[in-house]
């Protein structure tokens, strides 16, 4: 059965701040999921094509069917977000269905399909969907994997007319794509650009590792991206033949989930797919191969400037199984077995082991192989790191875990499943559709969240120490064991030395965690409960502002948007503004080390222990005007959640190990910083755009090496202790006395010191230049990147201009896409972005960029210059404005039904009433953007004298040399 396991802990994870495109519900709760007559009539039955042979309880919200020609469908009513319908068309064909000469054809055909069909002009489908409010790349997209090709469409503001038209367009594209020589040539260029842009050391390592670990399997050499040779030979005739062979009704699945009748959805499937006929007999499934036991066991991959890394793999043949309750039991027990080992591995890394990070995972990959892998980043001696990880695994298959250990991991899974159950009515239709497609691809079934909870309750009861020992032996044993070592330099003895390390006896590491009795009753009191100074309702919002005597302010929204869920965001201090633009800082260390360094009497292990099985988190982020501690909790845990956050501010702990770990982590990956153009951009772009402002410029090696626990504490301790505190609590608070909880936690803090921010409210912008500045990478000679940007502004005084610039960026992006990608195939993913900070009065910019071949850099600048000049000289047409403003309005309309959206927009609202006013007017501000506004903003900002440009070229190359260069791309892995 399709399982959504509890998330694993990953070192140096990226904390994504709340953004205005999240989907949940705030101002008006979504209606309960309705069941029409067809769904209700099917309740209690388990005879659909998905559940054949399975005894897993059926999710009765789905209606299934199969047309006489073999097209299968699954449809479901769902009102999240309101008015949206998600459509997925899955074709049972991927890269492992290709011959050697056809490598990359499944992916190339996916691109061709989305250009249009024989019944509409080339590229017109994109424009039609834009008029329906669809954003290309997010609302409409496609994906090719080794086993399937999936077309995705999320249609907002559905009407009977636009849903019918969308089904007609999509079915026409899948059944009869426009496969002309002109279209093949254009999309071949796009795919080759994608291949070129994805090339680099990481792809070379991935390709070589796959070939070694999956020897004997097509999986080892059938990357969806294809090869230069096969793509170069692709023609309209050969691609059409591939389409005719594999795109057949009996290989199609149509999934529709959304705000509508399942009977209507089913009728649309029959209307647009019912008369589809295949040519000839349905070809048999390809032989995906079997793991080759005679292939070499050890492989050393030498890749300069890459950190040492190990992959240990236990490889088993894939077995086709009927998905039953017993199969689900096996899957959950396997997940617990992995979690037991991962907790031990992480504990060793936290306490200073031989590796920076190590993690095991077991997967059933592409219906080809059942594999358990251990990914290891050694600190110094790779042999010691490999031996230590093997020792933990060896102990796991020799000695049964304690029942306390098992319960600890089962608690995490159960909490995750119960959270899904509580939030089931708010599950977005797009996710439900994707889950159905994924289940069909891996030949499993789905059940309801309640079914998941009920089955797991029975499964965990059977998870005894002996059962888990048997499961661990199955997960960590295999007929074939292989290992890959990536090294920046050749190692003595090569593959033989690696093989000897693999064959050496494993040293048992019996260092299991001891059960503790820590609980929040032992947590020190924050202080004397605070008193409320004032409470006021916020006009236009279902929220109240609470101010405490100690100066803490809170914005609380008690709503049923997400039943059983409470979101918390505590904003304190002044964020990026706490540091001067030219002063050294340690802002870059906070993401991991600040939360991992502990709270009061507890280190990270004790925090894990006390929060086990509960919805209590401690996430950290830095905003322009505040630091943030955030969490997703529930009514039962919100008191302890706020106690933990308040404790982090009242009595932070300063464990040294997380600081040492982040320093080593940064140094380990430091040489990756210029391995590709993308790596150079990821590291340096924000610093470049702000004139090398040190708050956004990446730390250099000397700064990283100088980091110590003492300097870390000296930087962060005053920032945790000073500056205003604003609390946001949004969610299901009907059963919670949130005023009392706030008074006992954040309201009980001592009054905070008010320290003037060291950084002002102005942010510099890069100095304009007549010719592009140059930066360099050490990667492939065929890779480059080009960026150009204009400074705009920032702040909350002119919100309509911020919205107008979003529309201007969308228009610019649409034109750039058409010219640079669709027409010329020079880039896979050009991007235009408008950044408008609210914590500063300046610092905004409109950024245009793309990854390219060096020879296309000057062409990029010419196209960008032409687009900017035209936007300045001429107003956009009414149709172009509607096609680009409409999708933005739809994104806002969908997101505005969610707590995440409102929390994001209302940051700072307790201190500045303009914040709430701007949040309430955002939809109207976007709707009121006119062609004259777009042109006015273009004239105001897109002036050549203020323009900054930068090109990233291969090391040692000039722009003149780049213009004359025509480097062939090298083979690389990747998928759209």
UniProtKB/TrEMBL annotation:
<comment type="similarity">
    <text>Belongs to the peptidase M16 family.</text>
</comment>
<keyword id="KW-0645">Protease</keyword>
<protein>
    <submittedName>
        <fullName>Peptidase M16</fullName>
    </submittedName>
</protein>
<feature type="domain" description="Peptidase M16 C-terminal">
    <location>
        <begin position="234"/>
        <end position="410"/>
    </location>
</feature>
<dbReference type="GO" id="GO:0006508">
    <property type="term" value="P:proteolysis"/>
</dbReference>
<dbReference type="Pfam" id="PF05193">
    <property type="entry name" value="Peptidase_M16_C"/>
</dbReference>
<dbReference type="GO" id="GO:0004222">
    <property type="term" value="F:metalloendopeptidase activity"/>
</dbReference>
<feature type="domain" description="Peptidase M16 C-terminal">
    <location>
        <begin position="707"/>
        <end position="883"/>
    </location>
</feature>
<feature type="signal peptide">
    <location>
        <begin position="1"/>
        <end position="34"/>
    </location>
</feature>
<dbReference type="InterPro" id="IPR011249">
    <property type="entry name" value="Metalloenz_LuxS/M16"/>
</dbReference>
<keyword id="KW-0378">Hydrolase</keyword>
<keyword id="KW-0732">Signal</keyword>
<dbReference type="InterPro" id="IPR007863">
    <property type="entry name" value="Peptidase_M16_C"/>
</dbReference>
<keyword id="KW-0482">Metalloprotease</keyword>
<dbReference type="InterPro" id="IPR001431">
    <property type="entry name" value="Pept_M16_Zn_BS"/>
</dbReference>
<dbReference type="Pfam" id="PF00675">
    <property type="entry name" value="Peptidase_M16"/>
</dbReference>
<dbReference type="InterPro" id="IPR011765">
    <property type="entry name" value="Pept_M16_N"/>
</dbReference>
<dbReference type="InterPro" id="IPR050361">
    <property type="entry name" value="MPP/UQCRC_Complex"/>
</dbReference>
<feature type="domain" description="Peptidase M16 N-terminal">
    <location>
        <begin position="84"/>
        <end position="202"/>
    </location>
</feature>
<dbReference type="GO" id="GO:0046872">
    <property type="term" value="F:metal ion binding"/>
</dbReference>
